[in-house]
Amino acid sequence: MAGHDMDSQVLGQSEAVIHTTEFADLVAATDRMVAQATRTIRILSHDTEPALYNREALATLVAGFIARRSKVARIQLLINDPRPAERETHRLVTLWHRFPTFIDVRELRDEYAKTREALLIVDEIGLIRRPEFESASAVVTFRNLNTARDRAAWFDEAFSRGAPCNALRRLHL
Prior knowledge:
Blueprint (H helix, E strand, L loop, with lengths): L16 E4 L2 H13 L4 E6 L4 H4 L2 H13 L5 E6 L3 H5 L3 H8 L4 E5 L10 E5 L3 E5 L7 E4 L3 H17 L1 E2 L1 H4 L4
Parallel strand pairs: 2-3, 3-4
Antiparallel strand pairs: 1-7, 2-5, 4-8, 5-6, 6-7
């Protein structure tokens, strides 16, 4: 992330392409982008990545997004393996149970289940893309219309073919 202060990045304005290799930088980019969401948050995660997505700070940001933008807020979580979130309470799953109108969770199916990529797409303009979900190496862009829209279209197709995540829906009720 050399040369880029994450706190100065503005969704829809900052055109810097930031490469992360450290987990702390990935966390900072995730929090910064989610904090600026105004319409949609799309997350493609292999297994709900507890170290990244099951943090109190992120849950607070997501709940704040829903509270601020309740008329238009939409959060979609697309996962391949729900088992880690089944084993322990996951904050995003808890928010899904509290706010089912705003949050939808699905499991990857068909050819989409073979992806190794991880994505965070915010408002179809901000994008954190990791070619390998197991790695903190990512390309972070707070304003990248073409690539963010392309990945959002792919995500939407995968989401529409995904299956409802019934295993997580039953948890902690």
